[in-house]
């Protein structure tokens, strides 16, 4: 049995959860917060990041590593194309979503979502980087109707949980959704993915977790 560790508000936790649900893999959930000093957590995720999984073979951390392992261990239904080039293009999109968009926008989250403050210099630096990276992402993403084309893939497990955060955080800080301003019509895409049974469950669990936090 696989145990998914983390919390239901985390986009990376929900990415892995979406993969598990899409594949129909049995799993349990254990609530673990980031920055834990518990040795049981550090033994599985040395940087105390979530998500991580516990399996009969041991523990595994980093969301994309977990997603790739799940794809290899449970190949059907496939979330990567059959050909090596197609698989690489999906992973390219995952990298752009997570490294070049979400991770950059994450510097805005403390003010956008949690009542903190981000200094003007950081806001300006993040905006300049995002404008460049969003334009680059637009060249790669097909939205046809999914990020990599006509098939739902691991790129969508990443995109569905992270693109709204990029849009919402930039709207909150700059008064402008930088994805939409660049011509990326992300809302219909997120709505499309959100109709999938696995995504509906992830969204419902996330909503419940947010309500429980008050």
Helix/strand layout:
Elements: E1 2-6, H1 11-23, E2 27-31, H2 39-42, E3 52-55, E4 58-61, H3 63-73, H4 84-105, H5 109-114, H6 120-140, H7 154-174, H8 178-181, H9 186-194, H10 197-213
Parallel strand pairs: 1-2
Antiparallel strand pairs: 1-3, 3-4
Helix pairs in contact: 1-3, 1-7, 1-10, 4-6, 4-7, 7-9
Commentary on this structure:
The protein has 10 helices and 4 strands. The protein is of the alpha+beta class and about 210 residues long. The protein folds into 2 domains: about 1-75, Glutaredoxin; about 85-195, Up-down Bundle (Glutathione S-transferase Yfyf (Class Pi), Chain A, domain 2). Strands 2-1-3-4 form a 4-stranded mixed beta sheet, with helices on one face. The radius of gyration is 17 Å and the shape is globular. It starts with a strand and ends with a helix. The model has no long low-confidence stretch (mean pLDDT about 95).
Write a short abstract of this structure.
With 214 residues, the chain is an alpha+beta fold.
How many structurally independent domains? 2
Strand order of the largest sheet: 2-1-3-4
CATH architectural designation of the largest domain: Up-down Bundle
Biggest pleated-sheet summary: 4 strands, mixed
Q: Which spans of ≥5 residues are poorly predicted at pLDDT below 50?
A: none
Discrete helix count: 10
Can you count the beta strands? 4
User: Radius of gyration from the CA trace?
Assistant: 17 Å
Proportion of residues in helical segments: 55-70%
Order of helices and strands: EHEHEEHHHHHHHH
Q: Give the CATH topology of the largest domain.
A: Glutathione S-transferase Yfyf (Class Pi), Chain A, domain 2
CATH class of the largest domain, please?
Mainly Alpha
Strand residue percentage: 5-15%
Report the span from N to C terminus: 32 Å
